[in-house]
Amino acid sequence: MEFSPEILALLALAAFCAGLMDAIAGGGGLLTVPALLLAGADPVTAVATNKLQGSFGTASATLAFTRAGQIDWRNAMPLAAIAVFSSVLGGLAVATLPSHWLGAVVPVLLVAVALWFALSPRFGQIDRPARVSPAVFALAVVPLIAFYDGFFGPGAGSFYILGFAALMGLSGVRAVAQTKLLNLASNSGALVFFALSGHIVWAAGLAMGLAAFAGAQLGSRLVLKHGAKLIRPLIVIVCLAVAVRLMSDPANPLRALIGV
Asked: Could you tell me the pTM of the whole model?
């Protein structure tokens, strides 16, 4: 599949904006996947190509936060390894487990996450005492979110940020920084699957990836400069936007439950 130079330029613009948004609060796929679909890609190709460009963005943000000293690599690397393994398991489970019920559960969870970030005073500029041990977080929370990321995906970044902030007590900037590394890790397994399957449009993915890299650099700098006062409102907006996007699917079972 090939795109004209004009379409590639528009896709790159969408990827730049998505990379910026992803570096701050996640949810960049809300821009890039519809853009790829509008450009004529089928759903599988759109998701596969989005994984490629999104990996550039998460790698860029991870690099920026590493340079700023916000990622504790000694403690983060085991979490990243667990995230890779769990996301691969999630990808393998796609073919065997039903996923339609997640369409009903995830919007409710995302609204709850949005409310937590909107109302909680714990999400701020400084670290606070952790509510769970590092072992519990590594062996229970991270595998669950990474498996979900490989199996279904929408809102995974917000769930990671919530986990680091609410359970591990990290400040807003540090929670986002660790999340970018785990996002990169859990995306890696899915990217390998899509690359081997032949569904990635490489020209579009690489062009978008370079733009996403630049956007994520800008987004990371904004996070480092403005901290929680920037992160908090954008996470609320992203969570609600993803919830609305999932609910807009006519096949979503939650619509029948609430009579929509």
From this structure: 0.88
